[in-house]
Amino acid sequence: MKGQEKRKIFTLNALSLDRENIQQSEDGKRTIIKGYACHFGTPNHNFEVVTEDSFRDFFGELEKGGQMPVFNYQHGFDLIGGWDRIEADDKGLVVTGHLVNDVALVRDTIMPLMLDGVLNSLSTEGWADWDSIKEHYDENGNFEYYTIGKFMLTGISLVGLPADFAATVDVQNSLLLERKNRTAAPVETVEVEEDKNESVLNPYILNY
Hints:
globular; disordered C terminus
């Protein structure tokens, strides 16, 4: 496959955004947020696994002056702010960005939901080179997860339902709402022979 045929559009991992990391800019025009956009080495609910190496080409493009990912809402077309810093630590991608408070969607919908604690998760989106995707199976031949070797990040979205169901949401500083508690253990890279005729793809992939 060539060009666009090698690309798949993905919705990837998400982690909760702690309310303690939400603050206003001095002029009150921006809401500053910081959190993990995705984490490394652990399958999410869509059976996807990424590592720091998955984003090597993405960071390479940023160093050359490439465009930062867009900051959108619920993986839609509504731009609600911008991302100011993206870096990798031993756990995942740490992102710092800002919401623009004068945007009606931010003011009337997003901020009330964030302050109530029901909207505070991040989810990454972008495209992966098809040839970099490897499927992994257990000893009985059952599909377990697939690793993504090359992922180009195009957007980081504020979402209500993340792919990582182990994320927790801090509500009113007194109630800890835990989504389905599925804490997956880190996985090791396993070399397997990929059968593209029987490829297992997650339901969030859009083919272009």
